Amino acid sequence: MIKIYNKDSYNSRFLKLLFLGILSLGTIVSCDKELEQFPSNAFAADNFWTSESNANIALTGAYRGAVEYSTQVVPSDWWTYCGIVFMEFATDNAYDRRGDNSTQNRLTNGTLLPNNNVINGYWQGSYKRIAICNDFLENIEKVDMEQAKIDRMKAEVQFLRATQYFYLSQFWGSAPLVTTTLTPDEANNVDKASKTELVTFVENELKAATAALPTFGELKAGEAGRANKQAALAFLGRLYLGEKKFPEASAVYKQIIDLGDNIIDPDYKSLFTPANEGSSENIFSSQYFGGQAGNALPQHAYPAVASGWHIVNPLGSLADAYGFDDGTPLSYDDPRFDYEDMGANRDPRFRYNFIWDGATFAGRIYDCHPDSSGSVDQLTYSKQATRTGYGLRKFFDESFSGNLRTDYGGNIPIIRYAEVLLSYLEAELEAGNAITQQLLDETINAVRGRASVGLPPITETNAAALRPILRNERRIELALEGQRLWDIFRWGIGDEVLVGDFWGAPFPNSTLYPTTSKKLDPQSRWYVTTKNFREGVDDVWPIPESEVNVNPKLGN
């Protein structure tokens, strides 16, 4: 099977995929109107690029890429809820209730193989979007429309294609660099490009896109979800951080800051719900529409008491990274820590992001205590319930009452301004520049000092001492947003944080804990799993076995 999509198979698939669900591109196209005028089987490749209307449909397809709606267990695209949130299962942030044999867990537990269906899903999703983008860029100039519109569309598609090569460069290193549509023979014999070649391509494409894209502030009403200058700069900043080009990263992030379009929103919790997903803190997001292109994360992550499958389980190592509300680190021995209410006296983001035993979620009491044998959410190794003693609150409007698989329309952020500020500080620190209190106040303190969080300011200006503070802040601020694994890889800390036993919440007064937890802990934390990350192996993904079987050159 040809997995790097070629022009002979691409057009019919692409045109059918468009109508399975449309991303929020506002004034680009009215999907209902286009569906009525152009049934999904009415297009032919030789007469498609004939109108602005069709160009808009093609652009929508480039934004959608390989995104699938309803429930997923394996990512079809980097930007599905499955591709973003479930990526955390491979980290020290979360655990997949499906168990140690979950292929997300296998990414970093020492058992990663080339037949892993998660890496195959990301790989196929990347090349599917790349094929759509290549076809678009080869044909858009044929359309009789204003050149300014063509130029903007081309910049958007350049951005979308560059993001895919960014991911390929960061997770695989070397991979085919395909910039034109391919015949079947060409696709089956494509060579790998080096990581240097991929990085250079991404850098050049993002710079070109940045020059032509409108700023975030210039997006018109109804254009939510479209690429903007800040989004392209942010991905360029990520590229520079990943390649340890810290002065370049600093300059790029400073451009975003100086544009002045984005803010740190005072209300952290609402950023991840439909009520405030349009905040100017959310620079670029995966777009969902309830009932048409729904976000099924509620079905996967809600607790059983709320009819969910409880797939997403934050680990104790992440929960414990949230300190007390005066900014001091967490300690179970501190009298402020309350085993009966683990959200008390904590960094408010702990309460916004998680649920724990005795917490209220969607108007229901979440009872996950190991002794609560009558609860559907009892902490065990067998129920469709938590495996850690924690559940997910982030991303959810708890007043939602529709179908958990199809009706929720909440977006998921891909780029937030909080990331920009924390990345700017990291770039300055790693570039060896002086850290001033003003810099801290403009970056990390702006993030942790937002009104709904209100933590005291950081005053540490020594680089070596600030580094772990900044890395922890990034971890807890961006928790479950799909960035932790990349951070672990680029920081080279997998052998520190992804090796050994992982634990959940503590239950010191549990009667059943001593006989039900598979391992016992002096602090009475529930045993979850053990990881054995292999440095130099698991931080560079193997090209999927199915691809190498088709084209052995990819295995070299």
Mind explaining what this structure looks like?
This protein has helices at residues 7-17, 31-37, 52-64, 81-85, 117-139, 147-171, 184-187, 195-212, 229-242, 246-259, 297-301, 316-319, 348-353, 417-430, 437-442, 444-448, 463-477, 484-491, 494-497, 513-516, 545-550; strands at 94-96, 282-286, 312-314, 354-356, 360-361, 364-365, 390-392, 412-416, 499-506, 525-532. The chain has 556 residues and is mostly helical. The strands form 5 sheets. The protein has a two-stranded antiparallel sheet. It is globular and about 70 Å long. The two termini are 19 Å apart.
Summarize the structure.
Belongs to the SusD family. The chain is mainly α. It has 21 helices and ten strands.
Chart the SSEs and their pairings.
Elements: H1 7-17, H2 31-37, H3 52-64, H4 81-85, E1 94-96, H5 117-139, H6 147-171, H7 184-187, H8 195-212, H9 229-242, H10 246-259, E2 282-286, H11 297-301, E3 312-314, H12 316-319, H13 348-353, E4 354-356, E5 360-361, E6 364-365, E7 390-392, E8 412-416, H14 417-430, H15 437-442, H16 444-448, H17 463-477, H18 484-491, H19 494-497, E9 499-506, H20 513-516, E10 525-532, H21 545-550
Antiparallel strand pairs: 1-3, 2-8, 4-7, 5-6, 9-10
Helix pairs in contact: 3-5, 5-6, 6-8, 6-9, 8-9, 9-10, 10-14, 14-17
